[in-house]
Amino acid sequence: MDINGIVHAAADFFATDFGRIVYQALNAIYTFLFPSNVPGAQDVSLPSPKPPAA
User: Fold this and answer.
1) Helical H runs in 1-54?
2) pTM (whole model) above 0.70
3) pLDDT of residue 50
4) What's the distance, Cα to Cα, between the start and end of the chain in Å?
5) How far apart are CA 1 and CA 19, in angstroms?
6) Which end of the chain has fewer CB atoms within 10 angstroms, the N or the C?
7) Maximum pairwise Cα distance, the chain
């Protein structure tokens, strides 16, 4: 079975009422485990390099 057949079968499944329920349940679990409203990363200032000893 090629990828086109697998994607077509999955699209047909999620187009049904039961497929939509499964999709919404999986989406809710994913949203709960990986929330998108977390704060962004903060910049950390790097120390200035010391000149080499002469």
Assistant:
1) 3-14, 17-33
2) no
3) 87
4) 69
5) 21
6) C
7) 76
- 4 CA to centre of own chain: 23
Kindly report the number of other CB atoms within 10 A of residue 44's CB atom: 5
> How far lies 24's CA from each of 14, 32, 47, 48, in Å?
10, 12, 48, 50
How does pLDDT run across 19-38, given as a tens digit for each residue?
Answer: 999 999 999 999 999 887 76
User: The tokens 């999620």 sit on which residue?
Assistant: 14
Does the structure show a pLDDT above 90 at 53? no
List C-alpha distances in Å: 43 to 16, 40, 46.
Answer: 46, 10, 9
